[in-house]
Request: fold
Amino acid sequence: MNITKNPVITGEKVRFGYRGKRILDDVDFAVFAGEHVGIVGESGCGKSTLLKLLAGLLEPEAGRICVAGEESPEKIRRKISMVMQEAMIMPLSVLENITLGHTISNERLWEILTATKLKAWLETLPEGVDTYLGNRANELSGGQAQRIAIARAMAKNADIILLDEPTSALDRATGEGVMEALAVLTEGKTVIHVTHQPDLLLGYNRILRMENGRIYE
Reply:
């Protein structure tokens, strides 16, 4: 794993609150290019909030966040791929749900579909990857939706990947298989993975702990 000495993600004195409750309290951190970092902590400790700030989905009340040289949330969103706990499936085909307009080779597409364990399921659909997910989206299991979301993040091919409990809707065996595939597909990329399951972070460069709105090494 090639890690540079240059931080690609930084946060300085980041604060964020919701409905009068302080979620993040003067958080400082740095993540280096090519580094795989896990963040663990109990539910409600602020892990997902931090990830949404890094993804440009929220803005800090105070402090500064810089991702790949950008501080504007709109520009940050172009630089990252993110897998959230609750996968969003749109009334489009499976292929369109995965690519969202990004160009991808057929070889790369099937590499991703195999890695995310979607290939066997797609072979049962009437039109394969071109099957329209309109009403069918309601028929998807949580695991299928989550794997589509992971495939979508891989298809974007961003250099920075943010994972928020990406295997939470998968059974253990499938989740472990997807994590193994993610390790291969994210080689050379910068990854931040928040979870309450430290055993999913084997092989990561660093594991940080979040508690009471702060990060600890």
Observations:
- The two ends are 20 Å apart (CA to CA).
